[in-house]
Design the sequence.
């Protein structure tokens, strides 16, 4: 049975992953994660980056491509 009133210590809260903040995004991030499988060569190249660099890079290029290719009047 789960603990109905768990205590979250300050140390526990600080160790939780906060995510990567980017100043250029002017709206909240979606709650649902978008994921896809990539060819091995692309996957290996992306995973040569640090996790923070990889997330920021992918978020930036996907946002740019959607705004350029899929958003009307852009």
Sequence:
């Amino acid at each position: 049975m789960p603990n109905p009133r768990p205590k979250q210590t300050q140390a526990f809260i600080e160790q939780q992953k906060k995510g990567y903040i980017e100043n250029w995004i002017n709206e909240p991030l979606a709650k649902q994660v978008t994921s896809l499988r990539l060819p091995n060569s692309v996957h290996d190249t992306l995973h040569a980056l640090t996790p923070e660099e990889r997330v920021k890079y992918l978020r930036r290029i996907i946002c740019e491509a959607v705004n350029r290719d899929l958003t009307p009047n852009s």
